[in-house]
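Protocol step 6 of 9: fold each sequence in the batch and record its structure tokens directly after the sequence line. For illustration, a two-sequence batch is reproduced in full.

Sequence one:
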Amino acid sequence: MSELTLLILRIGFLIALWVFVFFVVYAVRSDLFGQRVRKMPVAAPPAVAPDARAFLTSAQPRIAPPVSSVETAPADGTPLKLVITSGALEGQELPLQGDVITIGRSPDSSLVIQDDYTSTHHARLETRGGSWLLRDLDSTNGTTLAGARVTSPVPIPLNTPIVVGSMTFEVRR
């Protein structure tokens, strides 16, 4: 082989080796520090009291939520509550007050979940058009509503399980 061919092969091998090293370092960094999650702007601060924060701990399958004609959770002032149905704080209730309830590992979330499968800013409950909507904030492991993965803001039917990490909760009257 000519010297030019050997030089090109050496350079190609070094480039491939550095690309491999880059991907290994990126994977290790992601495992140690987590993925960067963009924080969505919030129009108003959450109205849930700090003492109502929950510390919990998982992941569920990823699918799109079904559209149903079930009664959705109204945001017209009707007193509603978020009831934790499984997890470390099973049975506890949080009042749904204000326009936005944030869920995630971040200490500034309205509902804090200490779980490896929950993103820093995982999901958000928000009012729009007179009803409560569930929005996944591009979380790694997803948010499920009635067993289906949430891919866009969807209305929350009353008494329907919502899963974030290993915590399951429902919106009830």
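Sequence two, same batch, same settings:
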Amino acid sequence: MSGTTLNTNEPDRPDRPGKPNRPVEGRMTAASQGGVTVFLIGMRINNFRALRSWWPVFIAMPKMIRELSKEKERGLLGLQPLLGGPRLLYLVQYWESKEKLLAYASDRDGEHRPAWAAFNRRVREGRGKVGFWHETYAVPAGSYESIYVNMPEFGLGKATGVVPVGRRGERAADRLAAGSAG
């Protein structure tokens, strides 16, 4: 997993060539419109010495991300890898819809199904040497808001682009109300 956010449908940004991790000055909010599904997925290394238990789990995710970045119609908008200490690795993923996320998860021809089957076998044999978790949040259109202050493009804002806060409202409540009206 790289340390940058994947933006599978990043618009041409002639104003930011070669500067993806530089702070965007000022207060910004995500340019996304409509609903979004947020999928958090991670693994926990319970026993560092059990390399054969956790390494295959670790290397499965980059294969899936490569597949999803090549096949934009699957619905992954972007992702942010995060480190939660020495044992916990996770991704925050932004999807067009829960239907597209679930379709990918159940696709017998994709990278996910064989990785999931192998993980289940490993869990049965490994006696808890690696942990795994995910959470899914299907957010209705307009019922979310975001703000980034003097940050590089990050998270949902990086996945969908950013716009000045004033276009969506100065306060979080304003941005939530503006989004739910549309």
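Proceed to step 7 once all outputs are recorded. Observation for sequence two: Helices lie at 51-70, 98-106, 112-126, 155-160, 172-181.
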